[in-house]
TrEMBL record:
It comes from Parathielavia appendiculata. SUPFAM superfamilies: Ankyrin repeat. This is Ankyrin. Keywords: ANK repeat, Repeat. InterPro entries: Ankyrin_rpt, Ankyrin_rpt-contain_sf. SMART domains: ANK (SM00248).
Length: 314
């Protein structure tokens, strides 16, 4: 059931005078509404591909389109940002709106106003939030372990919040985790961009100072110890050169062609060869091995281990 208030609606429409009046008369600035949803997914691009059924953006942006039901609650501040009401968002922040939480239960790190502003490319709002909340780290993770810079990169904010986040001290090489049924991966935005066929984005990240020495870390599991101990008995680092040499378009299980499900931008394919040449120029070894047996020169077309989709729950 919807529980939005007049303040939620005023924030969506940018009625700042009404907002001031409502707050002056005791309206709850951080009241939650279950009807509204994020303007963009708070989950990583890769994780969406692993288990798209958990994401409402894979189902036509239906606010109740997941098997978890209605799983987000939004404040007037979040609604203002999603509605591109920047002045309204600043007003709500100046009147005490919380910038670091989006859930109405559990005080956990959450996809807050800083992450949403970075996602939307609102540099001025990111600056305002950080300036008025000096205690808020620019790399504060959300509930998915993702930072404002990650969301700026994922939404290709190369001329706005991505470079500005770095100016404010964001870590371009910060890692995030991708969870599958029986495996766990860690990678940077650059590693993800390569694996998902976002080769132009990878160029942008390298231009901005991303470290090319880290690709993907596949963390060892108990299954590895019992079944794959000859080759994968410990954490396995997969070189960025290996990752960028794969044909991202052939793994149809990883990239389902369903309406509403994100898939690689085919126009970025032309940048793949130039990216590989650049990595070699940066000093990555042509003969670096993945595990104990495979070099970049003999890689097949798909990644054998970690890139499978999560099995649906019963």
């Amino acid at each position: 059931m919807c529980a939005y208030t007049a303040l939620h609606l005023a924030a969506r429409e940018g009625h700042n005078g009404i907002i001031d009046m409502l707050l002056d008369h005791g309206a709850l600035n951080d009241g939650f509404c279950r009807w509204f949803y994020n303007c963009r997914s708070p989950r990583s691009l890769w994780q969406i591909l692993v288990d798209p059924e958990l994401d409402p953006w894979a189902h036509g942006h239906d606010h109740a389109g997941t098997r978890h039901g209605d799983w987000r609650s939004k404040t007037p501040l979040h609604i203002a940002i999603c509605s591109s009401r920047i002045d309204t968002a600043k007003l709500l922040v100046s009147r005490g709106a919380g910038v670091a939480r989006s859930f109405d239960v559990l005080s956990l790190p959450a996809h807050g106003a800083l992450h949403q502003a970075a996602t939307a490319g609102f540099t001025g709002l990111v600056q305002y939030i950080l300036d008025t909340h000096p205690e808020l780290p620019v790399d504060k993770p959300d509930e998915n372990g993702l930072t404002a810079f990650y969301h700026a990169y994922a939404n290709q904010r190369w001329d706005s919040t991505a470079p500005y986040s770095l100016v404010r001290g964001a870590n371009i090489n910060i890692t995030s985790r991708i969870i599958g049924d029986d495996e766990s991966l860690k990678t940077t935005p650059l590693g993800e961009a390569c694996r998902l066929g976002r080769f132009e984005d990878a160029h942008e990240l390298i231009d901005m100072g991303a470290d090319v020495s880290f690709g993907i870390l596949r963390e060892a599991t108990e299954e590895d110890d019992s079944e794959l101990e000859d080759d994968f008995d410990s954490d396995t680092h997969i070189s960025l050169l290996h990752v960028c040499s794969m044909d991202f378009s052939r793994d149809n299980d990883l990239y389902p062609r369903k309406p509403g499900v994100w898939h690689p931008v085919s126009s970025q394919r032309s940048s793949q060869s130039a990216l590989i040449a650049r990595l070699v120029t940066e000093g990555l070894s042509l003969n670096s091995q993945w595990g104990k047996t495979e070099s970049a020169a003999c890689r097949g077309t798909t990644l054998r281990y970690p890139m499978t989709r999560r099995s649906p729950s019963p």
